[in-house]
Design brief:
Length: about 350
C-alpha cells in the first residue's frame, strides 16, 4: 500500500479527520476505545505522520535546515553531531543542505525555503558568498536564522563563533617564538570573516614582535584541490620559501605534508606547520600536526539550542550578538620547541 494518510484512516474508520488527528496525539477529547481503534489501524497500515502536512495546518514542521559548505571537513561533521544531539532531544527533524562552496547553490537553497518547508535555519556561508541579498530576503520574511562558524555580520541575528583573531595571533606568535623568520598564511577566501579574523590575528602578532616583514599570505582555490597542491609546492620550491606555515583550512595542512614529502623537506626542521583542524587522526601524522582545534560540537549544540528556542518561544528574540566559544591550541611535533621565550614589544 502507498503512503497512508489521516484522510485514509478517517474513511476506513468512518471518523472525522479531526478525530483521527486527536486520537493519534492521544488527546483527552477522544475516548479510550476510539483511540485504540485508530492507533491499532495506524500501526497495522504502518502509518507515518507527515511533518510537512502538519506544518501547513499548524505553521510548524518541527524541522530545521542546516546549510553548510561541505561535510568532508571534520569541523562540520562534529558541528552536525552537536546539532543532532539537540534536535533529537527536542524532537526536531534536521535537513542537511550542502552548497559545495557555491554562492549560486546557496541562493537556490534559500529560495526553496521560502515555501515554508522548515521552521528555521542554521547556516555557515560558502567561501564565494560576498553579497547577502538572498539571506536578507529570507530573513526579512521572519524566518529565524542562526549563523555558526562562517557568519554574516550584515544580518542582525545570533552568531555562534570561536575566537578566530586570538587563534591566528597565538599561531603566529608560537612560530615566531620557535624561530620562524618567514611565515605564510594559507587561505581559500578573501571574503570569509573567519579567514579575515585569523589573518588579522597573525598580522598583529608579527607587528607586536616587530616582524611585519616576515608575514605573507597565499590565496588558494576553494574547489580546485590539484591546483592548490601545485601552488603550495611552487611556494616551497622558492629560494625565499617560508619556514613557517599556518593553514587556515584543514585540507591545506595535508597538502603541505604531501608537498614536503615530495620535495624532500623535513617538518619541522625545514618547515614548521600549524593547521586549523578537528581531525583526531592528525596525531598519527609524521610528525603529528600542531593544531588550532575548534569546539565544533559545542558550537553546533549552542547554535541549535538558540534556534529552537527562538522557534518555540515567541518571547525569545534572536538578538544581534556573537556567542564565542574558545578554541584549543594543541602543540605537537610539526612545530619546534620554544628555545627562548620572546615577548611582544
Amino acid at each position: 500500500m502507498g503512503n497512508v494518510t489521516i484522510k485514509f484512516l478517517a474513511k476506513e474508520l468512518n471518523l472525522s479527520i479531526a478525530a483521527i488527528s486527536k486520537a493519534l496525539r492521544d488527546s483527552h477529547e477522544i475516548s479510550p476505545a476510539t483511540k485504540k481503534r485508530v492507533q491499532d489501524l495506524a500501526k497495522q497500515l504502518n502509518y507515518v505522520p507527515n511533518p510537512y502536512a502538519s506544518s501547513l495546518r499548524h505553521r510548524k514542521s518541527k524541522t530545521i535546515a542546516v546549510v553548510l559548505p561541505e561535510v568532508a571537513d571534520s569541523f562540520f561533521s562534529e558541528a552536525i553531531n552537536g546539532i543532532e544531539a539537540v534536535a533529537i532531544k527536542k524532537d526536531y527533524h534536521v535537513l542537511l543542505y550542502l552548497t559545495h562552496e557555491s554562492i549560486a547553490r546557496e541562493e537556490a537553497i534559500l529560495k526553496d525555503f521560502q515555501s515554508g518547508r522548515v521552521d528555521g535555519i542554521l547556516m555557515s556561508i560558502s567561501a564565494e558568498t560576498n553579497c547577502y541579498q538572498h539571506i536578507h530576503s529570507l530573513f526579512s520574511k521572519d524566518m529565524p536564522i542562526v549563523f555558526f562558524d562562517r557568519i554574516c555580520n550584515e544580518i542582525k541575528t545570533t552568531k555562534v563563533i570561536t575566537d578566530d583573531f586570538d587563534c591566528g595571533y597565538n599561531a603566529a606568535a608560537h612560530l615566531i617564538k620557535t624561530g620562524c623568520q618567514k611565515i605564510n598564511f594559507l587561505s581559500i577566501s578573501e571574503s570569509l570573516g573567519i579567514t579575515t579574523m585569523r589573518k588579522m590575528g597573525c598580522m598583529k602578532a608579527c607587528q607586536d614582535f616587530n616582524m611585519e616583514n616576515a608575514f605573507q599570505s597565499l590565496l588558494l582555490s576553494n574547489k580546485e584541490t590539484e591546483s592548490n597542491y601545485s601552488m603550495i609546492k611552487s611556494l616551497l620550491k622558492k629560494k625565499s620559501r617560508p619556514d613557517g606555515i599556518i593553514a587556515s583550512v584543514e585540507k591545506l595542512s595535508l597538502d603541505v605534508y604531501f608537498a614536503c614529502r615530495e620535495l624532500g623537506l623535513s617538518i619541522p626542521d625545514d618547515l614548521q606547520l600549524i593547521g586549523f583542524s578537528n581531525l583526531s587522526s592528525v596525531s598519527l601524522l609524521a610528525p603529528a600536526l600542531t593544531t588550532i582545534t575548534q569546539p565544533a560540537f559545542e558550537i553546533g549544540e549552542t547554535a541549535a539550542s538558540t534556534l529552537i528556542k527562538a522557534i518555540e518561544k515567541k518571547s525569545f528574540v534572536l538578538v544581534d550578538e556573537h556567542i564565542t566559544i574558545p578554541s584549543k591550541f594543541i602543540i605537537r611535533g610539526s612545530t619546534k620547541s620554544i628555545v627562548q621565550e620572546k615577548s611582544p614589544d
